[in-house]
C-alpha cells in the first residue's frame, strides 16, 4: 500500500537525499522551515489522494480456540491499550473479555498444566500456570524448553536490567542451584516483596483518620 500511494517517500533515494538535506540544516546552509514546507506541500496532496482511494480498511479477524464461557462463541483477538486480549465477537450483546495467554510450551511442575505468559495490572510480565486459581505456580523468570542436565527440570531465564540474561534450573532442590549466583538475586527479590507486603499491611492497619491527617500535612 505504501509503495502504491507513497512511492517517493519509501524510495531509498528519498531517504538518502533527506539525510543530506538534514546535514545542510545542521551546517546552516538550509533553513529548516523552508525544507519542511517544500516537503509537506506535495506530501499533503499525496496523503489526501491516498485517503480517498484507500478509504476504510477492515483488519482480518483473528479467531482464537477459546470459547466464550458466557455465550459459547469463539473469542477473537483484539488490540487494546495494553496489548492484545481476547473479546467475545458477540459485542455488545456479550461483553466478555479475558487476557490473551501465550503458551510457553513448558509444563507446570506442580500440576502438569501449561505455563503461560501473564501480565500484572501495571503491565509487568510474569509466568504462571494456566490452571490458576486451582494451581498457584508463578515465576518472574521466563521458562525455557531446555532442561537441566543434572535433574531434567526445565530451565528458567533471568533477565537483568543491563540486558544480561542468566539460565538456571527451576528445581530448588537441584545440585546446580547450590551457590548459584541467581540465589542471591532471588533472595533480594523475596526480601523486596516481603518489605512491600509489610508496608501495605501497615498502611491498611492505620486508622482512616490518621491517614487523612498525614495527607493534609
Please explain how this structure is put together:
With 217 residues, this protein is α+β, with helices and mostly antiparallel strands. Among the domains are: 2-54, no CATH class; 60-100, no CATH class. Helix content is 37%, strand content 26%. It contains 6 helices and 11 strands. The mean pLDDT is 86.
Features:
four-stranded antiparallel sheet, 6 helices, alpha+beta, 26% strand, 217 residues
The helix/strand series, from N terminus to C terminus, equals HHHHEEEEEEEEEEEHH
- Count of DSSP E strands? 11
Largest sheet data: 4 strands, antiparallel
**What's the rounded overall pLDDT mean?**
86
Q: How is the largest sheet built, in terms of strand order? A: 1-2-3-4
Terminal-residue CA separation: 59 Å
Strand content: 25-35%
Q: Number of helical segments?
A: 6
Supply Rg: 27 Å
Give the helix proportion (percent range): 25-40%
What does the overall shape look like? extended
Secondary-structure-derived class: alpha+beta
* Low-pLDDT ranges: none
Write the layout of secondary structure elements.
Layout: H1 2-5, H2 7-10, H3 12-26, H4 32-54, E1 62-67, E2 74-80, E3 83-87, E4 97-99, E5 102-107, E6 114-119, E7 125-129, E8 138-139, E9 142-147, E10 154-159, E11 165-169, H5 181-205, H6 208-216
Antiparallel strand pairs: 1-2, 2-3, 3-4, 5-6, 6-7, 7-8, 9-10, 10-11
Quick structural overview:
By secondary structure, the chain is of the alpha+beta class.
Amino acid at each position: 500500500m505504501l509503495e502504491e500511494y507513497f512511492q517517493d517517500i519509501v524510495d531509498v533515494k528519498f531517504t538518502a537525499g533527506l539525510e543530506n538535506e538534514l546535514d545542510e540544516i545542521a551546517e546552516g546552509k538550509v533553513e529548516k522551515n523552508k525544507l519542511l514546507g517544500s516537503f509537506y506541500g506535495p506530501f499533503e496532496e499525496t496523503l489526501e489522494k491516498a485517503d480517498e482511494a484507500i478509504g476504510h480498511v477492515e483488519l482480518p479477524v483473528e479467531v482464537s480456540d477459546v470459547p466464550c464461557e458466557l455465550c459459547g462463541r469463539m473469542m477473537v483477538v483484539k488490540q487494546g491499550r495494553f496489548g492484545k486480549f481476547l473479546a467475545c465477537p458477540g459485542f455488545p450483546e456479550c461483553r466478555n473479555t479475558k487476557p490473551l495467554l501465550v503458551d510457553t510450551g513448558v509444563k507446570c511442575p506442580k500440576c502438569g498444566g501449561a505455563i503461560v505468559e501473564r501480565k500484572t495490572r501495571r503491565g509487568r510480565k510474569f509466568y504462571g500456570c494456566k490452571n490458576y486459581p486451582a494451581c498457584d505456580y508463578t515465576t518472574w523468570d521466563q521458562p525455557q524448553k531446555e532442561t537441566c542436565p543434572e535433574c531434567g527440570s526445565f530451565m528458567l531465564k533471568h533477565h537483568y536490567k543491563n540486558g544480561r540474561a542468566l539460565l538456571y534450573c527451576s528445581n530448588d532442590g537441584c545440585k546446580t542451584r547450590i551457590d548459584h549466583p541467581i540465589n542471591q538475586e532471588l533472595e533480594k527479590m523475596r526480601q523486596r516483596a516481603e518489605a512491600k507486603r509489610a508496608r501495605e499491611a501497615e498502611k491498611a492497619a492505620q486508622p482512616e483518620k490518621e491517614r487523612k491527617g498525614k495527607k493534609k500535612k
